[in-house]
Write a structure and sequence with these properties.
elongated, mainly alpha, single chain, 4 helices
Amino acid sequence: MEFIRNIQANIIVFYETVKRFFYYGWKLRKNGDWDYNYLYKIIHLKICNIEKAIKNDKLHSWSKRDFRDLKIAKNCLDRLINDRYTVYSNEDRYLERKVHPEFGIVYSIKPDKLKFYKKSLEKEQYLRNQDMDMFCKILKERSTRWWI
């Protein structure tokens, strides 16, 4: 009888492995470059799967803080992937358009707006670094409790 249970368990494990192979193979086939943005997308996908598993599975005893940190990490990754850091979305007030005979259309920064443009770029970089630091901090502290 135990032999039959072992066979059933092995079949279930094999089925789950094949299912994951095709699921992630289908996700990974789209992109061949492994840059930081693609890495963020893979981690975001895994975090979303963990969140779904936590919601569907009633056997886990997750603390509220762990679940909250999971959501914060997911939001930080979402902002990093979509690059939602533009402080000033209207760049027309900073850039002027010129037509160059050799290079075509060229954009240059208006001299009177250079100081404000630099400040906005510094603010965007500050926000990006803040999200990256928060995500890495949460991943370092809490990730061992998330993975199923």
